[in-house]
User: Fold this.
Amino acid sequence: MKRAYNFNAGPSALPEEVLRIAQEELLNFNETGMSVMELSHRSKDFENVHNEAQSLLRQILNIPDTYEILFLQGGASLQFSMIPMNFLSDGQIGNYVLTGAWSEKALKEANILGHTTAIAASTKETNYDRIPELSELRLSPEDAYLHITSNNTIFGTQWKDYPTVKDHLLIADMSSDILSKPLPIDKFAMIYAGAQKNLGPSGVTIVILRKDLLEKTTEKQIPTVLRYGIHSKNNSLYNTPPTFSIYMLNKVLHWVNDQGGIAEIAKANERKASLIYDVIDNSNGFYQGHAQKESRSLMNITFNLANEELNKKFLLEAKEAGFVGLNGHRSIGGCRASTYNAVPYETCKALQQFMLKFKGNL
Ligand SMILES: *Cc1c(COP(=O)(O)O)cnc(C)c1O
Assistant:
């Protein structure tokens, strides 16, 4: 059986080793005589999986004890609502940096809830081809938080340096680049990510949240299941968690350690992305990157050919050659290669060779 050259943007490739272990354990997990999906979420066997996933994530990303790690549901999209619900009081502002479609959506949810919001900076004018300079950010004393999207999955841009905001809480949607490199956790009040890009299958959402912020989130008059404080008090077992997704997350975290940890993963990601960016940069404009160089993402590589016809031809021939998921997002078109952690070097190499061949270099 041949595995596909999978460049899907999300859900996306999972490590083959992880899938094989899941397959082996599917009918009889840990001598329980059942699948992990059939266990009680209150059982010792599941609790071990759950707690180990937390501690592995803490160890791999070097998350201090002053931060809580939560496993929630509803995707990153529910966080767009939970953040303003939990953190904004009257007179306070939710401040957003707009760097693409996901940050626009985050802002939109705060507005739907009737909160006061602001736009700290936006690069919409140039079709989100870059991350703003730190000096471009407009902050105000009323800001309860500053929200950024660390990696813009659709436009292919990524923050390299995170802003330092002394008197504000920095909150980041890291759905598409968490676990791709080491992180300066203490710059952030909160980090969140849907799992289906770098962490595992969809269904679980990771929230890493400073513990001192939990207090006020239990006091607010919002539905119980939408309060961070409640999930923290119950070790993310207030209600039934997405047990299979957490199990898969656990396996993916073990896999990260097997690769040599986060520093090795980061190096591999750089090597993989540069295979493809090098083709773009050395193509004399045959391939044109969407993102400006300093803002380019190591996770989502967005590019166009000279015209729509050529884009189509490229995508069609790529498909015939066994490449999956290279179409750009429906909102911007063109091509996109998502080179998340679990996409092997060999798969990126194959794309590099295909791009060279398509251009006529090979
Ligand atoms: C995929 C993605 C989302 C949406 O996540 P859901 O889990 O589908 O809600 C949000 N933000 C970013 C940056 C993403 O890449």
